[in-house]
Amino acid sequence: MGMFRIEEADRPHIVRLLIIWVILSAIGIVAVAQISYPPYDQSIQGQDQASTLKLLTVLATPVFIGVVMMTLYSAIYFRRTTTELVDGPPMLGNGPVQIAWVAISAILVLFLAVVGIATLSSENVAQAVGQPGRAIGQSGGQTGSGTAGGSGPELQVQVIAQQWYFTYRYADYGGVETTHLYLPVDRPVELHVTSLDIIHSFWAYQLGVKADANPGVDNIFHVTPQKTGSFQVRCAELCGLWHGHMADSSGQVVSQSDFDTWIAQQQADFDTISKAVPSYAPFYFPEPKLKAG
Amino acid sequence: MIRRISFVGAGVVIVMAAMVAFVGLFMLRQPGQLEGTTTKLHLETVAAIGQALEWPRPNDPHPDWVGYLPTTTWHVPANSTIQVQIDQEDGASGLRNPFWGKAFGIEGGTMHVSYFDDKGNPQEGDMTSIDPTTAAHTFAIPDLGVFVPLLGISDAAPPNSMNVITFSFKTKGPGVYRWQCFVPCAAGTLFGNGGPMSTIGYMGGTLIVT
Questions:
Q1: Domain assignment of residue B21, given as a range
Q2: How far is Cα of residue B186 from the mean position of the Cα atoms in its chain?
């Protein structure tokens, strides 16, 4: 065990650093654990993301404090005090220290890998990540099949991006199109994100959903809202003149009964134009590509 | 003694004057001082080909672009009714998203349209929506929930004709609201959304509510 011997002169520094590190790390961990992390808890998937972010931050805190502490401590206690230029003591390496930092880093990284894999394989996140977008030509088109892409009890909602607004179609309710996104609480939702023209990105951060909206692609994401209230929708892909205005703060998670009332009202309000809107399709194509003069 | 009292008095006067000025300025900045008023907004939509009938644009760097005239920056009062008249001179090019063929967010849910039918005969009536393929442009202020499709002029209409579309909507509090056209009407551009659709001053602009 001789290799673990610490020089007598270094012991006060080691003790001092350990005490400072333990105290500051404890304070730091308590502090960062109090922070409310985005994307918050309006959906199960959002809460999972927030929990993972909190865990990563808590684990990173002692490391961050250790690095900053060592830097400051060295700058204060080991600074050169004379103007004379002399070599410092030779650094020949320290086996125990190297073993320790490699081992601790490996444990941390492996722990995070296990947490990440377990989280990814969990049902909620696996659903949130969703399925690969259906590529152009697999199905659909401007006058597509008229059926939603998914099956089961999930509410099918199509998010249609266009320069510069999002609209939404509810496949389970006759494909009615609306200007705001309403979702019932505690009901799984399958979002089909697509675009009518160029590349956009649908971002409802309180729900923990951010999905590319590409023309000719049905990008599928899953979310289960668990808390009523409003949420924001915005475009997260620079998409032209009014990209900065392509946002809507009127998204709502409501009770199932309120949702039923709202969707019935939408169906009544947009009944006339619904007849002119094409059948529900997984995606649409921007036509024409070039406007004639 | 008198000197001290003078200082105190002067101080009180200064403080009071500052308070009056602050309150006065604050009140001047209050929204809704024109609440309940009705403001008229008269606009013209000009075709890419052809001259504007009402507001010629000799100095326009892009005289062959579609556009709203005479300006695309509109100043209106907060919490008021805005009566809009749009003299629409462009032909139909159709909506990419047919959903925008319905008018909503306007008072009564209807717009009054004077237009020419397929035989060139003048017609008029109230409409809640139009055939999406007949739209030339839209008048849309998304943050106010106002979306109005503008019927394209019939091919059979007499030369230098225009459709006249009138409707009203209400403003909310002060702010700068963008408006835009949802018809991909920029001729000669990719997906019809370049040129005048992507340049402020033509098919998009701001509604400044004070």
A1: 1-30
A2: 19
